[in-house]
Amino acid sequence: MGYDTQVARALRPPSRAPFVLVGVMMAAAAFGGYRLFQELQKAKADARAANEKAAAELVASTAAQKELSDKVEKLEAEKADLVSAKEDLSKEVAAKSGELEQLKGTYDKLEDKMKDEIAKGDISLSQDGGRLRVGLVDKILFDSGEAAVSKRGEEVLARVGAVLATIDDKQIQVSGHTDKTPISGKLTGQFPTNWELSTARATNVVRFLSEKAGVPPQRLVASGYAEYHPISNNKTAAGRARNRRIEILLTPSLAPKAIDKGKLTAVAERTKAAEPDPKAKARAKK
Q1: Whole-prediction pTM value?
Q2: CB-based contacts of 198, cutoff 8 Å, min separation 6
Q3: Residue 192 falls inside a structural domain
Q4: Which of 33, 76, 85, 201 is positioned for an S-S bond with 176, CB 3.0–4.6 A?
Q5: Residue 177: pLDDT band by 50, 70, 90 thresholds?
């Protein structure tokens, strides 16, 4: 009986439990490997995203730094321009003060040379800002109804011209003025209207100042206003006498000052260099 039991045990099929256990272990190992692979891939993706983010932030930071550097450079350039403009303004103020002082000196010289005529009311002087006006009634320069400068007028203009000839930075406008009385009689052949008379008188004064008193002709201007710029009432004899006059107006020279091309070029280059790079700005927005 005991023999049969042993034989039966020997003939019994082997248990499958070990194979099942091995299969379970292999499946567990495969699942663990798969999970590890997934985690590894995720870690790689996270690292790649982190690197890309860091690179983008670096580009943006570099662009922002470049833009900030450009702004600082532009502000420095603007500061330099402001300092230069301030210096130029100071120079202009000093020059203006010098011009006013010179004009005051001219006024004083004319007042001293023409004091007798000023006292009689034949000559008037007025100063307004950078302009000086000399008014001369017609009777001290011309004979009645004449445009040619009289002998007395030549003596008066010689004294005025001696002062004007020393001024080199002013335009000198000589203007002729009449009263409202129309030209009549034989004078109409020579002067059809007050326009011709006023212009002829101004032109003759300009010629005398240039040819006899040494005033540079390029600074002289002659003009005629006829009766259209009165300074008094034409209804009275005294008013008409005041309106018949020659005015000499000194104004700042109209000659343009030369522009420093080098300075303009430097400013343009600084402005262009301070402008942000469009490509860098586009990268910074990404």
Answers
A1: 0.59
A2: 175, 176, 177, 178, 224, 225, 226
A3: yes
A4: 201
A5: very high
